[in-house]
Amino acid sequence: ARSHFGSSGFGPSRPLGFVNSPAGVAMSMFKRFVEPGRLALITYGPCTGKLCTITDIVDQKRVVVDGPEELTGVRRHMMPIKRLSLTDFKLPFARRGIREKFLKKKLAESDLIKKFWESSWGKKITAQETRAKMSDFDRFKVMCAKQKRSKEVKKSLKKK
Question: What is the pTM of this model?
Fold first, then answer.
């Protein structure tokens, strides 16, 4: 019996997303969901580069985010999902419409903001900001250091 899931007729067919396991457990290809408590990075607008927490979902395209302002500089406001990059970090036990006081308490307990800035994504953003703030003389010093390092590497490889 052929199914409509694209079986070639050479074995049992399963819908896309299912793994070849005895139980046929569904494996989702998405890991980051738009949900209350999800930490997100703002990618566009006046708060670009700041972290926020999704506190409520308005509709398919918009969410309510909150920093809180004392921790991240983002006040509570509505924002399109297109302007957010979802992170892997999520507040445990966050519910829709979470209050700012409770949000601050949970963020302090879980250290999510600190964990994000210690991740490779956070380090990359920090390095980009540092590079953008460099003066001409700083760029010159970096260039000289790279040249010096390159000479040392070539010298050590030449000896062998």
Answer: 0.72
